[in-house]
Structure formats: C-alpha cells, structure tokens
Predict the 3D structure of the following.
Amino acid sequence: MNRVPEAIAAYEQVLSRWPDLPNAWYNLGLLQRQAGRLQAALSSYRKALALGVPAAEEVHLNCSAVHTELRQHEAAERELRTALRLNPAYVPALLNLANRCEDWGRRDEACDLYRRVLALEPKRYEALARLANAQPSFVTRASGDGAEARPMAAAAADRDVSAMVARVRAAIADPAASCAERASLGFALGRLLDERGEYDAAFAAYREANLESRKSAGPQFRSYDRGAQEAFVEELQRVFPPGLPARGVVPVPALQTQPAPIFICGMFRSGSTLAERLLSSHPAVRAGGELGLIPALAAGPLRGFPASMASVSADALARMAGGYAAELSRRWPEAMYVTDKRPDNFLYLGLIKKLFPAAKIVHTTREPLDNCLSIYFLHLDHGMSYALDLPDIGHYYRQYRRVMAHWRALYGEDILDFDYDAFVRNPKPAAERLFGFLGLQWQERYLDAPAGGAIRTASVWQVREPVYQRSSGRARHYQAWLGALERELREEPCSRA
C-alpha cells in the first residue's frame, strides 16, 4: 500500500521485541532506503547479515547500492566483491561491478565481467550491448605501436568488429529478445557499423533502435509535444522578461558558498562532459556530474515552474539556494568549486541566476547537425521523447536556441559559449578562454590530464580517449538521411496566438 513510514514503525516494533529475526532486519533496511534513511538502512542490513540472513549476496548488493547513493564508491565496490565471493555466479553483482568498472575507466575488467555474465546467461542481451559498447574504438585498436604493426593491428581490429557485429545481429534477431534489449543492441550495432564506415547500415540500425526504444516504453509512452515545448519556452520569456538587471532580479541574500557551483549546460551531446573533464583537471575543481538538484527544485518546491516564480518569496529562494549549497558542501567538503553539468539546466538559467546571482554559466555548443544526429544515435531516457525522431530533435533544438538567445540578452556577461568543434580543432586557445572566464589559472598540462574519477554518462569511453575530431563533421556521412532535420532546423520559430 506504499505506507512506508507505517511499515517502518511496524518492523521497528517487531524487532524491539524479537531482535533476532534476520529477514525483518532486511525488510526494514529496504524500507529505510526507500524513505531516504540511508545510514539507517546500512545498519539494518548489517544486523541482517550478522544474524545469518539467507542469500547474503543480495544484501551485499543492496548495501553497494546504498553506498553508491552516499558517494562512498570504494565501499560500494567492496560490497559487490564480497557478494561475488559468496556467490561467484551472482549475475546482478557481476553486472553492477562491470558497470562500476566502466564508470571508472577500467575497460578490460568491465569486458571480462560482461563475458562472465554472458557465459552464465547467454541471452542476457543487455550485457552483450554493454560489452559491444565497451570495445575500444576501431581507430584506437588499429593504431598499433608503430608503422610495421599498424596493418596487422588494423586487420585484427576488423576481425574483432566483424565478429561482434555478427553476434549483435544474431541477438537482435532472437525472438526471445525484448524491445528494450533490441534497442540497446541496435544502438551498439549502429556504433560498430559507424566506426567501420558502413554509414547506410549504421543509420538503419539506429533507426530501428529508436523504434524499439519507443516500443519498450509501453502504452504509457508520451510522444514529444511540440506545442507544449513552445508554450514552455514562451512562459520562460514571460516570467523572465527582457530589461531585467543582469544580476539578481530577486533580492536573495548573497551566499558565500564553498564549494561554489560552476554550471555547465547546453544540448545533450554538445561537449558538456569534455568541458567538465577539462575543468576538473584544475586542483580546485571537482567534477559533480549531472546533478539533479536544480530540476528537483522546479519539480518540487517550485512545482508549476516557471509560472510559480511569480509567487515565490525571496526567503524561499534563499532557503533553496542554501539547501543546494549545503548539498555540495556535504558531498565535496574540501572543494573550492564543483561543476554541475546537467545539460538541460539551460531551461533553468533564470532560476539559477536568482539563486546564485554571481553564477557563471558554461554553455557548450556544437555544429547543429552533428549535435542532433549524436542525440539520435544515443539510447536516452524515454522522458526525452524528442530524441527518438530526427525532426522532433530539430524542433527541440530550435526551442533551445530561442531559450539561449533569451538568456544571453539577460545574462550575457555571465555566459560563455564553449565550442566543442573549435576545441577539438585547436584545444589550447579554447581552454585558455574557458579558464579565464571562470577566473581559474590556466596551465597547458591540463590538456593532457587523464579523466579521473567516475564518469557516469553516455560519453564514458569517448571522454577517456585523447581529444579526437572524428565526431566533428560526422553528419556529412549521413547527408542522405538528414533532409527532414535540415528543414526543421531552418524553420523560423513562430509566436503562438
């Protein structure tokens, strides 16, 4: 019945009288995690383990999930390895550990773990899709260690890709594969074919993958609503009208926050992870990743955003700003700066500037066709329903341009366009400009800094490779398929009656 507080109270009452019930401790831990009481959940799981709860590997898996939510990454990995010592064939722990190895850039270990999963469950097709995506790029594998080695390396790489392509195609053709699995496999197949230069076949694979992704959402799937998106953008323009002062439109008390946030936003697949990686090479900056704190404010205390901004008080905004700052401080207590690179924060820049009037915004940009195509080629959450159709992506992109033009008119001095294509062509001047904008001292060695820490993004492997230009100008390979997208991008946005 989802009456979680009552269920917790009932288990606590039972355990106060009969404290030696391991399953009751386990169930209490599940409920405490659901209620956000993470430390209490860990304590309950520990008591269940001490009392000999059955299937202890499952408890360690749950403990790992809690430690991950607490950003205690080493502890999370220890729990998974403990689960696998108890049961080496426990597939959920193998998958979670493989995913963690991906996040931390340990490619070989991740691939080995996915292979172990597939040896135990050959039809675990999500693992096959992850294995295919975790393979080094064809260019990386074919490079070899010298001129003589390159032809042999290229031939070996081509054989590897051919074998994986055949394996993925066979899985897609399996009637037992679910729509979700076919979608994941299809996106992986598209990547493999793209790298081989088989662009027509790659586009066909991506198109089918997007169709399967739409099917996998089921009857509750909500298609992209162009009218609703246009209305939302116009409401933003109304609530944050031109002529406002460039800073602090509501008298929120200035917060001396440490760590201070650096907001990185733009379209998905426009280079936000690359910008964050570059900035986090500076010793004063920590990579926060795609934080959901700003969208959570819009969906929670500011429900009905942006219209709700008309009635929110300065005190309420100050409390929200304080809560955001406190959360950064809790997660990164020693940092001076933390990046918040949630791409769709571009929708909330008016709110961000009310919460943090001095906030600096790094706006990542990219050639529009390349950007839109890269979105179409990625398996994104169904909530981003525009991503499943190229013309819809083009429409969303036009609305994004309208929003950013509006924010520039209001806060232009605090917004820097970080051009992905310019950076990959000539990294140094683009990087110097970025660091100068943020008042951070620039050193050329930051360009060569490895991607440290966990990267939980679709760009996990690309970001860990050296800077490359293969994605810049990618759309030229797919020109025959982009007519509708190009027409959509050329359309002038119309005002609604």
